[in-house]
# Entry
Amino acid sequence: MPPVANVDDVIAQVDSLPPLPAATQRLLVLTSLPPDRADVGEISKVITHEPALAALALKWVNSPLYGVRVEVRNVHQAVSLMGLRVIRQMVLGFELHSRTSQGLFGYGMSAAVFSEHSLSTATACQLLAERYMPALKDEAFTLGMLHDIGMLLLDPLVKEHRELFAAALRGGMTQEQAERELFGIDHCALGARILQAWNLPEDTAEQIALHHTPVEEGTPPLVVLLKVGDSLTEIPFAERLGHPTTVDEAACRALGISTDGLKGLQAHLEASREGAASLFTG
Ligand SMILES: [Fe+2]
Ligand SMILES: [Fe+2]
# Structure
C-alpha cells in the first residue's frame, strides 16, 4: 500500500500546533514543585485569571469525587482542597480536552469518548502505579492522559483516507501499522514529538513513543504499566462494539499482575468512570 502523505509534512504539523498557553505552562511548573515549596496563592491567582479553569476547579471540587458537604465557591479554597497533583491533572486534562473538542471522527471517536479514554487510562495507570511503583504515580497519570495525543494530528488524514485506512485494518494491520504504512509515522512517534514541542518531560515523550511496541526485556516499567492500563481501558469500548476483548498478556506478566488483580482493577475503574467522564463537559 503506497503512502498517501509525505511524512515530513505530517511531522511539520507539530510545529504549527498552538503552544501551550502561558497559564498552563505556569501551572505545570508551579504544581511540579515539592509540596513544601508550593505557592497555593500564586496557583489560585493564575487559575482565577483563566475563567474556564476557575469554573473547572470549582466543578471538580464540588463533584461527588470530593464529597465536600458545603459548596466551595472560591478558587483558593478549591486549590487547597484539591492539592497540587489534582490541579496538575485537571490542567493537563483540560488542555487535552480543548484540543480535541471537535472529536477525532476519522478514528470514530467523539470528543467525549476520546476524553473518557484518556482519563480512564490515566486513572488506570495511577491505580497500577500506586500498587506497583508508587514513586511514579504522577508520571503514570500524565502518561496515561497524553498517550494518544498523536492521534490529534493524524485524525484529518485518517478522515480523508478513511477507505484505505479501513481496508488496511480489515487486511489485518494494527492501527499503528496502518498509520505508518499510509502516513509514514504512527500516533506514538507523533505524540512524542508533540510533548517535546511543548517542553513536557522527555521521559514521558519517550514512553509515549513506545506505547504500542511489544514488551521485551528492557521495556521501561512505565511503558509496561501504560500498556496494561491502556488495554484495560479498551475493554468496555470493545465490548460495546462487540469486538473481541484482550489485555496485553506480555505486559501483565512483566508487571506481575494476575487475572484476579486485573478484575479488581477493572471494577475499581468502572466505578470511577462515570464521574470522570463528566469532568470536562458542561
Ligand atoms: Fe495508542
Ligand atoms: Fe490508548
Notes: The chain is about 65% helix and 0% strand. The pocket of fe (ii) ion (ligand 1) is lined by residues 147-148, 187, 211-212 (CB under 6 Å).
